[in-house]
Design goal:
Blueprint lengths: L2 E2 L5 E5 L2 H4 L10 H8 L16 H14 L4 E5 L2 H4 L10 H16 L3 E5 L7 H7 L5 H18 L5 E6 L1 H9 L11 H25 L6 E7 L3 E3 L4 H23 L5 H9 L8 H9 L4 E5 L4 E4 L19 E2 L7 E2 L4 E2 L3 H13 L5 E5 L4 E2 L14 H19 L4 E7 L13 E2 L3 E3 L6 E3 L1 H12 L1 E2 L1
Parallel strand pairs: 2-3, 2-15, 3-4, 4-5, 5-6, 6-8, 7-9, 8-13, 13-15
Antiparallel strand pairs: 1-19, 9-10, 11-12, 14-16, 17-18
Bound molecules: 6-O-phosphono-beta-D-galactopyranose.
InterPro entries: GH (IPR017853), Glyco_hydro_1 (IPR001360)
Family: Belongs to the glycosyl hydrolase 1 family.
Keywords: Glycosidase, Hydrolase
């Protein structure tokens, strides 16, 4: 059976500046550059972001390969730590302006729509050391000035902007579960970081509407939405999944789309005495500056059960896990390399949720993908990686997405993570996600089998 998508559907792939560019000519270190300098052992085979996939030097050739893979849209990001010369005075770095201008022009010349995100976990480390990073509203102020520079420089040609990628990962990774620098556990700070990230997003949206130079321009946020399925229908498990959803999904989604944090969550955080510091004026800014559209990063669902910890047995001041515990479903289909469950039907449920509870606001899949280790295992005699598992993964997710669209979901595109195998945080290069393979030693790049599949999909807007 053939499934038809709209002719103007965006067939894209997503990546980010810090994961592709390399540190060439970059004046400031972001938190991952710094983490690598200090703790190279955190990184797979001790390989960090210094070269990444060499996009800084190779961008013309990389964009040519992306075009060959059929992409008509690419979501990437500008690095704050590259664009801004003086982080306090918020002055522009001339080389970075030249670089990002050339990248945007190259995408456009190749018929690829550049969708630009402003913050992909990559806070300049100096702002963390000097001000405590996102815990401090001074950093919010500096971020909004950086965002303004981006809009002033590039909004004549870029129509699609995003304020943050997965802000909940900044909160969880940096302040609760120690998988991103600064690797601390502090529930109260985590809650304040969540609020400050949302405030930064709303203020950047307000600024965008003042200075944007493009009548077609739109601004949104990219959220990782992992619905939580309860372990059973018993009240404790249902309540656990409900809280996990409030914390992981609704906090940013409600604030970004509806302009209000979920009341139930605010009440719980207030009762637990970890509620953020806010002012009436800030809350008004959040209310008035909601998104035009947003991106959904989807990899796997979450499964939640009643909490393992009792309220008084927490070893730290506060953890969301006071209210829920994650669990893995016995017998679930897994991507074992990454340890993530494969359950494409969730994408349909996300679409329904947006349609029914968020006013059917326009959205797109801003990341979805399958990270697999040692892809050389799949090398064909012709030197091409035969990643049939990735083709199957894409097909299954598109099946459920198509079903939702046919039922009225307002989804305008699908972006695979990622165009070219890239660096990622602690994973470094262990798991590969690309349509195009990268040899990390020679920087040689080559289309995988999935790239030809993707091209056919994008050219025909049909899935067989
Ligand atoms: C998302 C991030 C990406 C990317 C992806 C894959 O959460 O937005 O930056 O890294 O996950 O994750 P990983 O590379 O850790 O397997």
């Amino acid at each position: 059976m053939k499934l038809e998508f709209l002719k103007d559907f965006l067939w894209g792939a997503a990546t980010s500046g810090p994961q592709t560019e390399g540190r060439f000519k970059k004046k400031h270190a972001n938190i991952f550059d710094y983490d690598f300098e200090k703790f190279p052992e955190h990184f797979w085979h001790g390989i960090g972001p210094d070269t990444a996939s060499n996009f800084y030097n190779d961008f013309r050739e990389d964009i040519r390969l992306m075009k060959e893979a059929g992409l008509n849209s690419v979501r990437t990001s500008i690095q704050w730590s590259r664009l801004i010369d003086d982080l306090e005075e918020v002055t522009l770095n001339a080389d970075a302006v030249r670089f990002y201008n050339a990248v945007i022009d190259e995408f456009l010349a190749n018929g690829i729509r550049p969708m630009i995100n402003l913050h992909h976990f990559d806070l300049p480390v100096e702002l963390l050391h000097k001000y405590g990073g996102w815990t401090n509203k001074k950093v919010v102020e500096l971020y909004v000035k950086y965002a303004e520079k981006c809009f002033e420089c590039f909004s004549d040609r870029v129509t699609d902007w995003f304020t943050h990628n997965e802000p909940m990962v900044v909160v969880d990774g940096g302040y609760l579960y120690q998988f991103h620098y600064p690797d601390i556990v502090d529930g109260k700070l985590a809650v304040q970081v969540a609020y400050n990230l949302q405030l930064a997003s709303s203020l950047a949206i307000q600024k965008f509407r003042e200075v944007n130079r493009n009548p077609e321009g739109k601004i949104g946020i990219v959220l990782n939405l992992c619905p939580n399925y309860p372990a059973s229908s018993e009240a404790e498990d249902v309540a656990a999944a409900h809280f996990a959803d409030l914390w992981q999904n609704q906090l940013f989604m409600d604030a970004s789309v509806k302009g209000e944090f979920p009341h139930e969550l605010v009440e719980i955080l207030t009762k637990d005495e970890v509620i953020w510091e806010s002012t009436a004026e800030e809350l008004q800014i959040i209310r008035e500056n909601t998104v035009d559209n947003f991106g959904v990063n989807f990899y796997h669902p979450n499964r939640a059960q009643r909490p393992y910890y009792s309220s008084d047995s927490l070893a730290v001041d506060w953890l969301p896990n006071k209210y829920f515990d994650d669990y893995s479903l016995h017998g679930a289909r897994m991507n074992v390399d990454k340890g993530w469950e494969i359950y494409p039907q969730t994408l349909y449920e996300i679409a329904k949720n947006i349609q029914e509870n968020y006013g059917n606001i326009p959205w797109y899949v801003s990341e979805c993908g399958m990270g697999v280790s040692c892809e050389e295992r799949y090398l064909g005699d012709d030197g091409e990686i035969k990643d049939d598992f990735r083709i199957q993964f894409i097909t299954e997710h598109l099946y459920w997405l198509h079903k939702a669209i046919a039922e009225g979901a307002n989804c305008f595109g699908f972006h695979l993570w990622t165009p070219i195998d890239c660096f990622s945080w602690r994973n470094s290069y262990r798991n590969r996600y690309g349509l195009i393979s990268l040899n990390v030693h020679t920087q040689e790049k080559r289309l995988k089998k999935s790239a030809y599949f993707f091209k056919e999909l994008a050219d025909s807007s049909q899935l067989e």
